Amino acid sequence: MTTEYIIRLFIAALLGGVIGLDREYRAKDAGFRTHFLVALGSAMFMLVSQFGFPDVVGTNGYRLDPSRVASQVVSGIGFIGAGTIIFQKHVLKGLTTAAGIWCTAAIGLACGSGLYVLAAVATLLALICLEAFNFFLRRFGARTVSLQLTAASKENVLHVIEVLERAGLKLSSYHMERVETATGHSYAVQMDIRVRRDRYITRLLELMRDFDGVSIDNLE
Predict the structure, then answer these.
(1) Strand pairing of 142-151 and 170-181?
(2) Rounded distance, CA 18 to CA 125, Å?
(3) Could you tell me if 219 and 146 are in contact, meaning their C-beta atoms sit under 8 angstroms apart?
(4) Can you tell me the distance from the alpha carbon of 26 to that of 93, in angstroms, rounded to the nearest whole number?
């Protein structure tokens, strides 16, 4: 039986590592090692829950429920997932990474239970979601872009906002601050803009190119 347990751990780590390699390729915070360890740990918890108490089960009326450990893994993995979610500049980031870790934990639990085919199918579907759907989202989806610029006057800022809205780009939020300089003053502006994924950088640069008195400091 020990060999069977080891095989389950190896398969869990392998499948988790496959998802982790994809995340590593995409330069995400949770990469190969994180997904490898999450799948391995989940499988180990399941094995211990199922087979770790042979000297207790059946004695003095003791009965164990393996699903209890699985349920705790599901809730406990949320702490790791929460660490990958960041709310920055009015934009929520890391939700997909957190969901991927949660899914990897489920794959590890399935391997720990010996459900190899189910775990392999779940891994394949996860990769399809992360990679294949990414192609369609880039063409048809939308994202929030953070734009930082410096303008010579408030009129320049209002003109930028007017042109962006006329071009169909939705302005989610913006913050303007007056900055004193050696020659007078200028305005530092932070904008969050909702744009199409496929050509958002090109589109914004085309619009910003012809503005007088405005310079782009950062675009991400």
Answers:
(1) unpaired
(2) 12
(3) yes
(4) 14
CB atoms within 10 A of CB 71: 11
* pLDDT value at residue 185: 82
Radius of gyration of the chain (CA): 25
Alpha-carbon separation of residue 36 from 3, 42, 101, 191 (angstroms):
20, 10, 10, 38
Q: Which long-range contacts (CB under 8 A, 24 or more apart) does 103-106 make?
A: 103/19, 104/16, 104/19, 104/20, 104/35, 104/38, 104/39, 104/42, 105/38, 105/39, 105/42, 105/73, 105/74, 105/77, 106/42, 106/74
- The DSSP output letter for 92 is E
Query: Tokens in use for 29?
Result: 């915070």
Evaluate if pTM is beyond 0.70. Answer: no
Phi, psi of 90 (to 5 degrees): 65, 15
Q: What is the pLDDT of residue 141?
A: 62
> Which of 96, 103, 52 is CA-nearest to residue 77?
103
List beta partners, residue 91.
Answer: 88
Instruction: Identify whether the C-beta of residue 159 lies closer than 8 Å to the C-beta of residue 211.
Output: yes
Average pLDDT per block of 10 residues along the chain, 220 residues long: 87 91 80 89 86 61 66 77 65 76 90 91 90 68 74 81 76 79 80 68 67 71
From residue 202, alpha-carbon distances to 21, 160, 207 in Å are 30, 16, 9
Q: How far is CA 210 from CA 16, 95, 156, 219, in A?
A: 49, 36, 12, 17
For Cα atoms 112, 117, 122, give the angle at the middle one, nearest 5 degrees: 85
